Amino acid sequence: MMSRAAHAIGRRALQEAARTHRLPVSCYASAGHAHREGGKGAAGHVRLLSSKAVDTSDDGVEAAAPAASTTIPHAAASLAGGLGVALRPREVVEQLDKYIVGQPEAKRAVAIALRNRWRRHRLREAMRNEVIPKNILMIGPTGCGKTEIARRIAKLSQAPFIKVEATKFTEVGFHGGDVDQIIKDLVEISITMVKKARMENHRAAARLKAEDTVLDLLLKAPIDLEGNRSRESFRKLLRQGLLEDIAVDVDVPADRGAPSLQLDQNTMTFTVVSGPRAHPSAGGKRTEQKSMPISKALPLLTELSLEEMVDMGDVTKEAITAVEQDGIVFIDEIDKICNASDYRGADASAEGVQRDLLPLIEGSAITTKHGNVNTDFILFIASGAFSQCKPSDLLAELQGRLPIRVELKGLTEEDMYRILTEPVTNLIRQQKALLAAEGVDLVFEDAAIREVARVAAKVNRTVENIGARRLHTVLERVVEEISFDAADTAPSATITVTAELVARRVSDMLIESDLSKYIL
After folding, report:
1. How many other CB atoms are there within 10 angstroms of residue 257's CB atom?
2. Could you tell me which of 471, 479, 392 has the C-alpha nearest to residue 431?
3. Are the C-beta atoms of 305 and 206 separated by less than 8 Å?
4. Which part of the chain is the Clp ATPase C-terminal domain (predicted)?
5. Res 434: pLDDT
6. Which of 210, 207, 96 is nearest to 157 (CA)?
7. 124, 272, 382, 476: which has the fewest C-beta neighbours closer than 10 Å?
8. What phi, psi does 323 have (nearest 5°)?
9. Which helix (H) or strand (E) holds 85?
10. Helix (H) or strand (E) holding 495
11. Which of 256, 248, 249 is nearest to 286 (CA)?
């Protein structure tokens, strides 16, 4: 019978493990419970409760954890249970507000979509398999924030995410990329994410193993009581960085062999690949001995240990599950594969690509070199300016698969000013940071910032509306001379940008007869 002290210790250890690995409360048991449930009673051997043992309510929602819980009970929880999935919609909008000005409708739609992924994972399996994501179509002029929203979603979601340009794909049978490549690339991204997460979990153990290897190379003596003391004293010196310059001989993988061609059966294309040459007499990888300082040997041995500790078979399985359950695909420039209703002609990158996208968005099994991937529960977000056509010119079936439509508004002069001042990493701060590297303190007067915003808005109205991207053109014109002379300026110098300086630097941009040459 396990003692009460051991019971308490085991329970605390498991609770800490649950918090560390983001396991749901219902998915761990104390060592004592494991003993009574028929699992092994030894500490560290715990039988996890299956999802079937969790009480469920009649409406299909698991009742094991309170609504405020931020854990996600599925195989990819360690990957998908991060910041973005657990954030409430209001918190997602607040995060987006730090980098994107305006567009509240688009932010709300994205926030709800992310939260619905979290909600879906809390349903019973029968109900969960019936709930599919509501895909989003974002419509708005260029430079209004569509792509920036995609970039921030990728960082917030902490789930497999890929952004693609619709124009890079062609209809099946034509030269060019097929839309299936989207999912193949998403799987590769997911594998990288899962592998990185697992390697971080094992990094401490790998570092310890690398230290032991280095100490073995340093001591090269049988381990006795005196040797153990000497070993620990050397370990302290090693961790203090006092042994970094000592050279050791390390066994490292040999140089890769000659490159070879690999045929992709799906696309019928060849890829140049190279792999480590096998040992002549054995099937393992060939190694060679290299002499290097400990400062280089320790990181190298750590990475080699991590590669051994991570099972790529398990990584691939978890990565595919993460793609299927939490994958997000952002398709930009979808209006470029849409022809106006009065258009007559053939285009391998237009309606045919839309037809190829239909089964992908609706849900189908895509064959990859790592296995089949089901796209039923992948969230698709499409965006486009639709300046030459209308959203209604898309195939009716594709419109139906993008049920949530969000319109982003064009940017005004006030929006331009806010873009220059409000985001955490706005353009003004970027310019100041760049010149600070030269020891120059760049100061923008508020009137100067408003003048930059006014000029950008006016050029957008009179030439071509490229949205916030116009600010780059105007601001670079303003600081061009300052940036050129910064390296020759006295250290700790202060340069103030005034409204008069801005007007003088961009005056020629406001001459409408010559504006065309400044079009990006």
Report:
1. 12
2. 479
3. yes
4. 411-503
5. 92
6. 96
7. 272
8. -65, -45
9. helix 83-86
10. strand 493-497
11. 256
3-state secondary structure of 462: helix
Tokens 């399985």, residue located: 317
The span from the CA of 255 to the CA of 430, in Å, is: 42
Distance CA 284, CA 80 (A): 35
Q: Supply φ then ψ for residue 66, to 5 degrees.
A: -70, 165
For each successive 10 residues of the chain (520 residues), what is the average pLDDT?
42 44 36 38 34 45 45 39 64 91 91 90 91 91 87 85 85 64 93 91 90 83 51 84 85 65 56 48 65 88 89 92 92 84 53 86 91 93 87 88 90 92 92 91 93 91 87 92 86 88 83 54
Token reading at 427: 């353009």
| DSSP per residue, 348-415 | TTTHHHHHHHHHHHH--EEEETTEEEE-TT-EEEEEE--SSS-GGGS-HHHHHT--EEEEPPPP-HHH
pLDDT of 55 reads 44
Question: Domain 413-518 belongs to what architecture?
Answer: Orthogonal Bundle (1.10)
Domain extents for the chain?
1-49, 116-189+319-407, 198-311, 413-518
pLDDT at 189: 93
Residue 7: per-residue pLDDT: 41
Q: So what's the pLDDT on residue 44? A: 35
Q: Which of 322, 378, 325 is nearest to 179 (CA)?
A: 378
φ, ψ (nearest 5 deg) of residue 292: -155, 155
**3-state SS record for 328-362:** EEEEECHHHHCCCCCCCCCCCCCHHHHHHHHHHHH
Is the entire prediction scored with pTM above 0.85? no
User: Which of the 8 DSSP states describes residue 278?
Assistant: B
Residue of 507, 513, 514, 418 whose CA lies nearest to 471? 418
Are the C-beta atoms of 320 and 365 separated by less than 8 Å? no
Q: Tokens in use for 280?
A: 């002549």
- Pairing between strand 136-139 and 379-384? parallel
Per-position b or e across 39-68, b if 16+ CB within 10 A of its CB: bebebeebeebebeebebeeeeebebbeee
Compute the distance between CA of residue 410 and CA of residue 459 in angstroms, rounded to an integer.
Answer: 14
Q: Which CATH number fits domain 116-189+319-407: 1.10.10.10, 3.80.10.10, 3.40.225.10, 3.40.50.300?
A: 3.40.50.300
In the prediction, which pLDDT does 262 show? Answer: 60
Strand order in the sheet with 136-139: 161-165, 328-332, 379-384, 136-139, 404-407
